[in-house]
Design brief:
Elements lengths: L1 E7 L4 H12 L2 H4 L2 E8 L5 H8 L3 E4 L8 H13 L3 E6 L8 H6 L4 E5 L11 H7 L4 E8 L9 E8 L6 H26 L2
Parallel strand pairs: 1-2, 1-4, 2-3, 4-5
Antiparallel strand pairs: 5-6, 6-7
Bound molecules: 5-O-phosphono-beta-D-ribofuranosylamine.
Length: 194
Amino acid sequence: MKNIVILISGSGSNMAAIVRRAQQEDWPRRLDAQVAAVISNKADARGLQLAREQGIVTAVVDHKAFPSREAFDAALQHEIDCHDPALVVLAGFMRILTAGFVQHYADRLINIHPSLLPAFAGLHTHQRALEAGCKFAGATVHQVTAELDHGPILAQAVVPVLPGDTPGTLATRVLTQEHRIYPQAVADFLRHAH
Ligand code: GRF
């Protein structure tokens, strides 16, 4: 069985979309894959509760409990590796990862970013897209490399920017698409993983 480990920091709606799709499409039988664990750096991440309700193993590795990024990443890596993952999915995981961590999961670590990369890496993507006068925005699923919000693009979705949009309304429109393309990208990855 190919194990998927999902890392979250907040509401976990992308995680939930992946879990839902795994159930709907019966990934254990059809892809020989399962969501094995959901791990958060925040104990109060809303997504944790949701994962528990689905019977998924959860864990918290609190970054504030560690003196350095390296120490946090080592603890996180240990927790993840307990599940022998074929794929590690960053889903609203709001920590910058060390090069060593990224290297350890080379070719099995993916992220979703709420912009049309390579435009608007980093934070406040929707506000920046509006300020730039973009007519379109979107989301990108990409393989994670040592450079933040870079790495080979696996999937993208485009949405229009509409008159009167605020960062909030644009974020909601983009998030709807994230929930569509992220589960699809995970399934595609698993189909090609061995
Ligand atoms: C998503 O927009 C994701 O792209 C961004 O943070 C948000 C997380 O939402 N990096 P959720 O936790 O999956 O609901």
